[in-house]
Amino acid sequence: MTLEEKAGLVVGKGFSIPGISMGETDKSPDKITGISGHSVGIARLGIPSLGFADGPAGIHKFMNAKDSADKLFTTAWPVGTLLASSWDTALVKKLGVAFGEEIKAFGIDFILGPGVNIHRNPLGGRNFEYYSEDPLVSGKTAAAIINGIQSEGVGATIKHFAANNQETNRMSVNTIVSERALREIYLRNFEIAIKSSQPWAVMSSYNLINGTYTSESHDLLTTILRNEWGYKGFVMSDWFGGKDPVAQMKAGNNLVMPGTTAQVKAIVDAVKNGQLSEAVLDENVADILNVMLQTPTSKRYQYSNHPDLKKHAEISREAAAESMVLLKNDAGALPVTGTAKTIALFGNHGYDLIAGGTGSGDVSKAYAVSMAEGLTNAGYKVDKELQQRYQSYLNEYEAKHPKKALLQELLNPTPLAPEYTVDKSSIEQKAVSSDIAILYIGRNAGEGNDRKIADDYELTAQEKEMITSITDAFHAAHKPVIAVLNIGGVIDVMPLRDKADAILLAWQPGQEGGHAITDILSGRVNPSGKLATTFPVSYNDEPSTKNFPGKEFPEKATTGMFGMKSIPAEVTYEEGIYVGYRYFNTFNVKPAYEFGYGLSYTSFGYSPVKLSAATFNNKLTASVTITNTGKVAGKEVAELYLSAPAKTMDKPSEELKAFAKTGLLQPGKSQTITFTLTPSDLASYKSDASLWLAEAGNYTVKIGASSLNIKGTASFNLRKELVVEKDHKALSPQAGINELKPGK
Predict the structure, then answer these.
(1) Which of 259, 405, 422, 689 is the most buried (most CB within 10 A)?
(2) 712 vs 587, 609, 611, CA distance in Å?
């Protein structure tokens, strides 16, 4: 292989979507049109060009008229935050297998997902793509979907590595974070998933960590990822990520995407002038080739372009229903029994489902089932006059706000229509003619922009007025009001929490969302989802608010991708390890709905917690028996939290260390769940010594139905401190961080 061929192989084929081409290194036709990118093939050596497609909730392609005519649509799966709310890794793996079947059927080699970044702040624009505020839930869920996808012989790409928790200045922000917070929170999710699934590829993120772009960080990509974690695949950059392709090669970022001719030239020149060892380039090439041998393209797989979309839609519906979270259910408002009921459905998106987020997380789906369609298909009577009013309003808005050109729409999606206002007299009439009101709240976000507090995280004035008018009218008529939240990220639920009789959190449920929501509301499926992220009483209760999205340095602005202004910025993670419930529980800040919370149509009893020993010796098991004490079949998630001594290091009051979901338990039936604790579950990261340390003393196991609803506890003793793992000094901040600690 010539030097030029090697350099070509570690740089992508260029950016090419319909109507737009940039920096193409290879002018040959793309194997698959409309996907995110390709690697460069070398025909004389039999090295093929590989195809990479977004995204984490389904295949994202730029569809042309022929693609639509040929029905080359793909399945929109439930978004990451909803899947994590299932707390059911077997279900997530099942979905992953179907996802892998679809990726392979379209001749794609790699899907650019899953995304596993932590929900650091509710305003994160891509939180819908990600799983949780907790690294264990994130890591286990990611491992499950990766193992499912890769069982079909296609590659998953875990992303965005690492500490990529905002969209504001995403390509220029320097994330300043302590080694401990990195190791325990922002890298731990990746570590769990990578060690449990060995994804074929890792995507480095746009941001810098403590002064260095992640794609140029030897500490991150070689010292930690490969040397400490034993990763065997290859690393690709995010599209146009980083600045210096030579530094990326030295760091261990094998593939620079989407690729430009200037990057190829820079690598060739660096080898020739001695700035880059050809041996380093050879290592990067070898890592790509070793994975390439496993791909469908290398194996000359004859793809059909026609996966079993009907079967996959059924799996999408099942996964969505099994993951939704029932936040409130007073006086048995749900399930809605008897399909003769007439339902007044209020809210734009009850008639226009938000299946998933925008940007690269969007999916080329054939349809999306709305709440109105789901109810109608199940036999309920949706108020027709109200439906006509909403649909006329939405059609008129769409006509006045047509979709923009392809790239503009990707970077700056057309905003959702403002909420349609139904006058009070009409609401009062519906309270007489209808049996139930469903109040539907919708939110969307995506790549490129973080959310806002006003009219996004917070409810709009129209929505608040609608809530008051509907609940006043229907409650005066002694009829229930059910709220459905079709949202991509956490919102302020306080104006709704005490007024609606029931609240169902549907997140963004994929293309079968209306059917899945109806499955829950009707009782066809008993809700069993639990929150994988905290809903605070107030946005200002979040510990990251004063450091989100950080500060900018506009005087240093330059011209960036697509001619947009690139502003250097920095964000300091002063909350340290106190993210999500670790903060709320430790600092006694009461949330609206806590991490791990979720209701059922039945009830469950927990036996006392049993430990295998009173003293920890290499491992220990904790067992609990869960019994369905209610009247209908259901599933329960058991969550194990651990409280550890805090002698030389401050500690959260408790941390999630294990979880499991029961099977479908009939009334009166029980299931015993056994968790195993290992030394790593006891340890915290001691930055000054670069090691994981379990302190001697008493540890308390807490098993419960949420992080605040603990059903039983038991304690054990670790007689002497235990060094669990010795790591390298890496990714150190350049200056001290005034981190949050209990008592400060």
Answers:
(1) 259
(2) 22, 6, 12
SS3 594: coil
Output the CA torsion sign for 141, 145, 151, 154. negative
Query: Which positions ≥6 away from 83 have C-beta within 8 Å?
Result: 77, 92, 95, 131, 141, 145, 319, 323
Cα–chain center distance at 396 = 33
Residues whose CB falls within 8 Å of the CB of residue 233, separated by 6 or more in sequence, listed in order: 155, 198, 199, 200, 201, 202, 287, 291
Closest CA to 470 of 342, 341, 346: 346
Contact predicate 645/699, CB 8 Å: yes
Categorize the per-residue pLDDT at 369 as very low, low, confident or very high, splitting at 50, 70 and 90: very high
Whether residue 591 contacts residue 536, with contact meaning beta carbons closer than 8 Å, is answered with yes
- Report pLDDT digits (tens) over 198-218: 999 999 999 999 999 999 999
DSSP secondary structure code for residue 210 in this structure: T
Q: Is the peptide bond before 728 cis (omega within 30 degrees of 0)?
A: no
> In which element (H, E) is residue 382 found?
strand 381-382
273: helix, coil or strand? coil
Q: Can you tell me whether residue 564 is helix, strand or coil?
A: coil
Q: Per mean pLDDT, which range of 131-135, 402-406, 538-542, 672-676 is the poorest? A: 402-406
Under 8 Å between Cβ of 105 and 307:
yes
Amino acid at 452: K
- Mind telling me the catalytic residues? 238
The SS3 assignment for 326 reads strand
Q: Pairing relation of β-strands 620-628 and 610-611? A: antiparallel
What b/e string do you get for 297-310 counting C-beta neighbours within 10 Å, with b at 16 or more?
bbeeeeeeeebebe
Give the chain's mean pLDDT. 96
Radius of gyration of the chain from its Cα atoms, rounded to whole angstroms: 26
Q: What is the pLDDT of residue 19?
A: 63
Tell me which residue has tokens 């099977």: 663
Please state the separation of Cα 627 from the chain's center in Å: 31
Q: Rounded to whole angstroms, how far apart are CA atoms 441 and 464?
A: 11
In which residue are the tokens 């003769």 written? 340
Section 447-466 average pLDDT:
96
Q: Tell me how far apart the alpha carbons of residues 533 and 493 are, in angstroms, rounded to a whole number.
A: 14
For residue 625, give the 3-state DSSP assignment.
strand
Q: Which amino acid appears at position 253 of this protein?
A: N
Residue 18 has pLDDT above 80, yes or no: no
Distance CA 250, CA 255 (A): 12
Residue of 49, 450, 9, 10 lying closest to 215 (CA atoms): 10
DSSP string, 397-436: HHHHS----HHHHHHSPPPPPPPPPPPHHHHHHHHHH-SE
Pairing of β 551-552 and β 558-559? unpaired
**137 neighbors 656 (Cβ within 8 angstroms):** yes
Neighbours of 337 (CB within 10 A): 10
Phi/psi at 442 (5° precision): -120, 145
Work out the angle at residue 220's Cα, subtended by the Cα atoms of residues 282 and 647, and round it to the nearest 5 degrees: 150
Report CA-CA distances (Å) from 683 to 178, 184, 657, 686: 17, 10, 11, 9
Single-letter amino acid code for the residue at 535: F
Q: Average pLDDT in the 31-37 region?
A: 92
| Amino acid identity, position 708 | L
Could you tell me the CA-to-CA distances from 153 to 110, 148, 207, 287, 292 in Å, in that order? 10, 10, 31, 18, 11
Question: What is residue 640's three-state secondary structure?
Answer: strand
For 629, phi then psi, to 5°, come to -100, 5
Predicted confidence at residue 8, as pLDDT, reads: 96
On the CB side of 223, CA atoms within 13 Å amount to 15
